[in-house]
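Re: beginner question about structure tokens

> Can someone show what the tokenized structure looks like for a real chain? I only ever see the sequence side.

Sure, here's an example I had lying around. Input first:
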Amino acid sequence: MKRNATAVWNGSGKEGNGNLSTQSTVLNGAQYSYKSRFEEGVGTNPEELMAAAHAGCFSMKLSFVLGAAGFTPDEIKTDCAITLDNGAITKSELTTRAKVPGIDAVKFAECAEEAKANCPVSKAYNCEITLDAALV
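And the corresponding structure tokens:
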């Protein structure tokens, strides 16, 4: 399986602008720029998309891990913060809250750690990955 996306950039790094499109068309000419990446400008940026990818991948993997352990989650909500420091992605911080009937906190923590270690996005990222996981 392959998925693809396209980035088009016009102009210099600081004054230019670009757009991102994905195969699914969920992103279709989504604007990005120096201001949306390093300031508070309108548009997306690569780090925001990396955070969305990690949150989504981890949540789905956790659902699969819980299912294999005999539990069906009612809801898994994961936030992710990507840190860009001196031109490098240095950290991905996952915070997840889940409603999982019948599971205890120890088993949930085991499942969450397994999901963190084995979701495909975690495996792809070459940075520190932290996890704050709790039942709600």
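Each token stands for a local structural state, so reading them left to right follows the chain. The chain has four helices and six strands.
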